[in-house]
């Protein structure tokens, strides 16, 4: 393991990954990989999650292609130095921010969107000029295998490597030193990753999870609301970190909500959901059993059918759920939707605030003031109002959590920034040493006053400031010299 | 009820602050501005007291105290007050085809309960500047000033709270043991300035609660001097930044890299500069600081034995005085090149040219600052391109940190995160992505709903290719 990481580090130190042309070439190669080997990639995702080709393509591949194109288009601009506003003291100097690669980056993926959650960070890491070690989730075996097979065929084999394995291998890997670690997964392992990172002072981006609440106001069009929620909840069989985890609404709405979700489920997946090619399965037996146990003692309004052999769990809705029960104690990550009745929006807000900050928060209402209030008085990684999931799709948004749902963010330019060091640079000249006499000891009160002046004074008009600076610098130096 | 020896001294304070945060007390711009103005008044009302305390703790001259502690802090307060409302504004972001009709913005939110742990070398600046950011961002703050800079610690504990709303601000005191205890609690953000060793301890403690951190650490900041420079100008600039605060500055040039020929020219120039700055007897100059305590004094005195003393080398235990010193003939393995010096000692390492210098620098941990002196801008830019460091300054010392439009922070072992100016506000804020969609226009969503057919897929691919912005359509 150590040798592998060393090899990648040596490759980075060679400087190969830094030139813009190289980065663009690698990104183009990645794009070719996704296009040429689309069938293999889709097949892998499909067999891991019993996903239809359409879903695999639209949920994972499309976003990847979009990110690569976005990166290719904008990278030439992003790698350039950005000048910053100067003050009187630095008026004649060059002051800018220069993005630089961090070095060797570790990306640990998750199994629920096994391709997207590896490749999207990878794109940004490559774009930022780093070397990358990828550790796909071992639970999505086929995708892990195909990544290990395909990436070396298209990308530089020393700069970007795939390491596969389980808990043991990941633990070994985490003992090594990296320059940034991006982890997608659960809170428990998130803590382990951060603790391992602390030993090397490695910065981390942790994309974790939580229970994303979904508040439905009385004042809304339930038909539309329930369609949108049904789409977001049962996509990928509920195995989405930003799926609406549970619903909060007034008790009087429950029956209607149940009815409309039921109708929508039928519309989306047909009479026999099990036969719909668009409905996925639970990733493995362990999670299947886990989700099943959440149903114990609950009022199943509809759904609840399961089949262990195929790891099938029907789209399920629970009503009158008691917040103290198990289904409300952990992130569900499955096609079970509890409805917890609350009396009003105040109670909903309190309910949300009593709990850990979620990765996403959803609120449905025609009343914009209510939506605004919900946002103002709660916290979460992100918010979508009157829909679900969608804030994930806009890559001008930083995507990440807060509190126990995570730290850091990525997507689009935010990925580039996450994997770069934005280095502040000030370039002065060796001339005009006279002006510096102001700062050198022996000091005097007048020097203090002049020093403060130059440090704190702002000017609105740059050219005027420049003129004034030169004039004042000369005056000051002369005066101070005269005062001795 | 007995006061149990195991009772947590911080529990009540932290609970009180958290409760205040939860009721939304710190959210309004008016409240935050009032806090910042309070901070400004603290600085103005107590200016003399602060100067005296800094003189007591570190023998800082009025010049150093004013410029590097009071004025910098005041400047940050003013900057925050001027820009608070602009910084707090929701930031609208470019939208994709699918979200054209929606409202898409980033909301800056306070994290909640913030812990700031400050060091002793710039005990006012490095406490107040982060505090400005945390308050401007609307957080409740627990401040843990350094127990080593005792006089300032006292003022921060006794005077500062009177200027701020104490329901959302507290100062806690103590040494390593108390700090360890404090760190067992859950915070929503931890801002630490200090050594890498303690930085690891802080981050490990933060990991238990998944608390995000900013760590402003340190390292050995290299300073390359090219042969084509005027040695006197270089000597002036390097000496000023090296001996400022008796060398106890995280961004000071730690060691020099130059050719033996340049070294020959630099030595007399450095001697001339030091004499001009501090007189023939630097110990009696009011412009030279002192070492913070005995422990660091002894540590530094031991370093005087490395290599050969070319300039200075005197020390006085009673005064915790170390003369502005330059060491030559130093081996890389000697202690003075193994740890961050943090004192008025400047070793000169010889290299033959830029390549060797770059190689020397890159063999070591990434420093907090990097300096390169050369008349050739090519040389300066080359060093910039082929190394990494928190910040970089060409042809001067750490001037770059006085520019609030430049972020201040480390990379690698020199730190995580950054601050100053708007970067402070952003550091102490959670950037929350908010997408507000229309409750109608459902037809536009039709393509995303199952059941899916090959026709759907073709539609999607066509839509993908027709987009004018590279974002997903769904």
TrEMBL record, chain A:
<feature type="active site">
    <location>
        <position position="241"/>
    </location>
</feature>
<keyword id="KW-0812">Transmembrane</keyword>
<keyword id="KW-0276">Fatty acid metabolism</keyword>
<feature type="domain" description="Aldehyde dehydrogenase">
    <location>
        <begin position="3"/>
        <end position="421"/>
    </location>
</feature>
<dbReference type="InterPro" id="IPR029510">
    <property type="entry name" value="Ald_DH_CS_GLU"/>
</dbReference>
<feature type="active site">
    <location>
        <position position="207"/>
    </location>
</feature>
<dbReference type="InterPro" id="IPR016162">
    <property type="entry name" value="Ald_DH_N"/>
</dbReference>
<keyword id="KW-0560">Oxidoreductase</keyword>
<comment type="subunit">
    <text>Homodimer.</text>
</comment>
<feature type="transmembrane region" description="Helical">
    <location>
        <begin position="464"/>
        <end position="483"/>
    </location>
</feature>
<keyword id="KW-0520">NAD</keyword>
<keyword id="KW-0256">Endoplasmic reticulum</keyword>
<dbReference type="InterPro" id="IPR016161">
    <property type="entry name" value="Ald_DH/histidinol_DH"/>
</dbReference>
<keyword id="KW-0443">Lipid metabolism</keyword>
<dbReference type="InterPro" id="IPR016160">
    <property type="entry name" value="Ald_DH_CS_CYS"/>
</dbReference>
<protein>
    <recommendedName>
        <fullName>Aldehyde dehydrogenase</fullName>
    </recommendedName>
</protein>
<dbReference type="GO" id="GO:0004028">
    <property type="term" value="F:3-chloroallyl aldehyde dehydrogenase activity"/>
</dbReference>
<dbReference type="InterPro" id="IPR012394">
    <property type="entry name" value="Aldehyde_DH_NAD(P)"/>
</dbReference>
<dbReference type="InterPro" id="IPR016163">
    <property type="entry name" value="Ald_DH_C"/>
</dbReference>
<dbReference type="GO" id="GO:0006081">
    <property type="term" value="P:aldehyde metabolic process"/>
</dbReference>
<dbReference type="InterPro" id="IPR015590">
    <property type="entry name" value="Aldehyde_DH_dom"/>
</dbReference>
<keyword id="KW-0597">Phosphoprotein</keyword>
UniProtKB/TrEMBL annotation, chain B:
<keyword id="KW-0443">Lipid metabolism</keyword>
<feature type="active site">
    <location>
        <position position="216"/>
    </location>
</feature>
<dbReference type="GO" id="GO:0005737">
    <property type="term" value="C:cytoplasm"/>
</dbReference>
<dbReference type="InterPro" id="IPR012394">
    <property type="entry name" value="Aldehyde_DH_NAD(P)"/>
</dbReference>
<dbReference type="InterPro" id="IPR015590">
    <property type="entry name" value="Aldehyde_DH_dom"/>
</dbReference>
<dbReference type="InterPro" id="IPR029510">
    <property type="entry name" value="Ald_DH_CS_GLU"/>
</dbReference>
<feature type="active site">
    <location>
        <position position="250"/>
    </location>
</feature>
<keyword id="KW-0560">Oxidoreductase</keyword>
<feature type="domain" description="Aldehyde dehydrogenase">
    <location>
        <begin position="19"/>
        <end position="430"/>
    </location>
</feature>
<dbReference type="InterPro" id="IPR016162">
    <property type="entry name" value="Ald_DH_N"/>
</dbReference>
<comment type="similarity">
    <text>Belongs to the aldehyde dehydrogenase family.</text>
</comment>
<dbReference type="GO" id="GO:0004029">
    <property type="term" value="F:aldehyde dehydrogenase (NAD+) activity"/>
</dbReference>
<dbReference type="InterPro" id="IPR016163">
    <property type="entry name" value="Ald_DH_C"/>
</dbReference>
<dbReference type="InterPro" id="IPR016160">
    <property type="entry name" value="Ald_DH_CS_CYS"/>
</dbReference>
<dbReference type="GO" id="GO:0004028">
    <property type="term" value="F:3-chloroallyl aldehyde dehydrogenase activity"/>
</dbReference>
<dbReference type="GO" id="GO:0006629">
    <property type="term" value="P:lipid metabolic process"/>
</dbReference>
<dbReference type="GO" id="GO:0006081">
    <property type="term" value="P:aldehyde metabolic process"/>
</dbReference>
<dbReference type="Pfam" id="PF00171">
    <property type="entry name" value="Aldedh"/>
</dbReference>
<protein>
    <recommendedName>
        <fullName>Aldehyde dehydrogenase</fullName>
    </recommendedName>
</protein>
<dbReference type="InterPro" id="IPR016161">
    <property type="entry name" value="Ald_DH/histidinol_DH"/>
</dbReference>
<keyword id="KW-0520">NAD</keyword>
């Amino acid at each position: 393991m150590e040798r592998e990481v060393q090899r990648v580090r040596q490759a980075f130190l060679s400087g190969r990954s830094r030139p813009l042309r190289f980065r663009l070439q690698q990104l183009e190669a990645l794009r070719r990989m996704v296009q040429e080997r689309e069938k293999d990639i889709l097949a892998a995702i499909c067999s891991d999650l019993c996903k239809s080709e359409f879903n695999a393509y639209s949920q994972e591949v499309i976003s990847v292609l979009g990110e690569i194109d976005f990166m290719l288009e904008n990278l030439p601009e992003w790698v350039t130095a950005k000048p910053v506003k100067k003050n009187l003291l630095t008026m004649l100097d060059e002051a800018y921010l220069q993005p630089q690669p961090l070095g060797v980056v570790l990306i640990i993926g998750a199994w629920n969107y096994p391709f997207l959650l590896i490749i999207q960070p990878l794109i940004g890491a490559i774009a930022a000029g780093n070397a990358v070690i990828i550790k796909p989730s071992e639970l999505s075996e086929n995708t892990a295998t195909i990544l290990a097979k395909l990436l070396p065929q298209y990308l530089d084999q020393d700069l970007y490597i795939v390491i596969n394995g389980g808990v043991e291998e990941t633990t070994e890997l985490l003992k090594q030193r990296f320059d940034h670690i991006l982890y997608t997964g659960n809170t428990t392992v998130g803590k382990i990753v951060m603790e391992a990172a602390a030993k090397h002072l490695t910065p981390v981006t942790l994309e974790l999870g939580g229970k994303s609440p979904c508040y439905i106001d009385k004042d809304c069009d339930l038909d539309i609301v329930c369609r949108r929620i049904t789409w977001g909840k049962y996509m990928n069989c509920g195995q989405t970190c930003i799926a609406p985890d549970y619903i909060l609404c007034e008790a009087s709405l429950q029956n209607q909500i149940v009815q409309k979700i039921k109708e929508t489920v039928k519309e989306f997946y047909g009479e026999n959901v099990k036969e719909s090619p668009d409905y996925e399965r639970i990733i493995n037996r362990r999670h299947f059993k886990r989700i099943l146990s959440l149903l114990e003692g609950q009022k199943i309004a509809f759904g609840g059918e399961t089949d262990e052999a195929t790891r099938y769990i029907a789209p399920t809705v629970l009503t009158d759920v008691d917040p103290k029960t198990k289904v409300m104690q952990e992130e569900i990550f499955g096609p079970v939707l509890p409805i917890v009745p609350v009396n009003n929006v105040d109670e909903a807000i309190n309910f949300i605030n009593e709990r850990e900050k979620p990765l996403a928060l959803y609120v449905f209402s025609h009343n914009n003031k209510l939506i605004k209030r919900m946002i103002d008085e709660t916290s979460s990684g992100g918010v979508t109002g009157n829909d679900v999931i969608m804030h994930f799709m806009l890559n001008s948004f930083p995507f990440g959590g807060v509190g126990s749902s995570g730290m850091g963010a990525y997507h689009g330019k935010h990925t580039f920034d996450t994997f770069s060091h934005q280095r502040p640079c000030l370039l002065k000249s060796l001339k005009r040493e006279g002006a510096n006499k102001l700062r050198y000891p022996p000091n005097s009160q007048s020097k203090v006053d002049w020093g403060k002046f130059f440090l704190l004074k702002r000017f609105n008009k740059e050219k005027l400031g420049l003129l004034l600076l030169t004039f004042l610098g000369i005056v000051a130096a002369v005066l101070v010299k005269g005062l001795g | 009820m007995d006061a149990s020896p195991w009772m947590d001294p911080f529990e009540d304070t932290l609970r009180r602050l958290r409760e205040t945060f939860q009721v939304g007390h710190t959210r309004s711009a008016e409240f935050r501005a009032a806090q910042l103005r309070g901070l400004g008044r603290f600085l103005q009302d107590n200016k003399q007291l602060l100067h005296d305390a800094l003189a007591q703790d570190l023998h800082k001259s009025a010049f150093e105290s004013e410029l590097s502690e009071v004025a910098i802090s005041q400047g940050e307060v003013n900057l925050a007050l001027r820009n608070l409302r602009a910084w707090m504004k929701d930031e609208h972001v470019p939208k994709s085809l699918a979200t054209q009709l929606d409202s898409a913005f980033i909301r800056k939110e306070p994290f909640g309960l913030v812990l700031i742990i400050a060091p002793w070398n710039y005990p006012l600046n490095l406490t107040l500047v982060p505090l400005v950011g945390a308050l401007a961002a609307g957080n409740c703050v627990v401040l843990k000033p350094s127990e080593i800079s005792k006089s300032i610690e006292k003022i921060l504990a006794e005077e500062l709270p009177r200027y701020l709303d104490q329901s959302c601000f507290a100062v806690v005191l103590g040494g390593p043991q108390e700090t360890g205890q404090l760190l067992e609690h859950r915070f929503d953000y931890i801002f630490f300035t200090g050594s890498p060793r303690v930085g690891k301890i802080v981050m490990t403690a933060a990991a238990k609660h998944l608390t995000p951190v900013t760590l402003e650490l340190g390292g050995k900041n290299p300073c390359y001097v090219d042969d084509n420079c005027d040695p006197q100008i270089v000597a002036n600039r390097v000496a000023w930044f090296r001996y400022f605060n008796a060398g106890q500055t995280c961004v000071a040039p730690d060691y020099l890299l130059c050719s033996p020929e340049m070294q020959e020219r630099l030595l007399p120039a450095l001697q001339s500069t030091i004499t001009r700055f501090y007189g023939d007897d630097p110990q009696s100059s009011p412009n030279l600081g002192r070492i913070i305590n005995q422990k660091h004094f002894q540590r530094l005195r031991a370093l005087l034995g490395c290599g050969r003393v070319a300039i200075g080398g005197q020390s006085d235990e009673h005064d915790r005085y170390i003369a502005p010193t330059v060491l030559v003939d130093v081996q890389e393995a000697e202690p003075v090149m193994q740890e961050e010096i943090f004192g008025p000692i400047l070793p000169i390492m010889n290299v033959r040219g830029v390549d060797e210098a770059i190689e020397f620098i890159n063999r070591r941990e990434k420093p907090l600052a990097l300096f390169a002196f050369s008349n050739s801008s090519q040389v300066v830019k080359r060093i910039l391109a082929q190394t990494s460091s928190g910040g970089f300054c060409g042809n001067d010392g750490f001037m770059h940190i006085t520019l609030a439009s430049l972020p201040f922070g480390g990379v690698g072992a020199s730190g995580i995160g950054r601050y100053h100016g708007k970067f402070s506000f952003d550091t102490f804020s959670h950037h929350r992505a908010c997408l507000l969609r229309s409750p109608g226009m459902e037809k536009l969503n039709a393509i995303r709903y199952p059941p899916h057919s090959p026709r759907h897929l073709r539609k999607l691919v066509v839509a993908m290719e027709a987009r004018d912005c590279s974002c997903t359509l769904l």
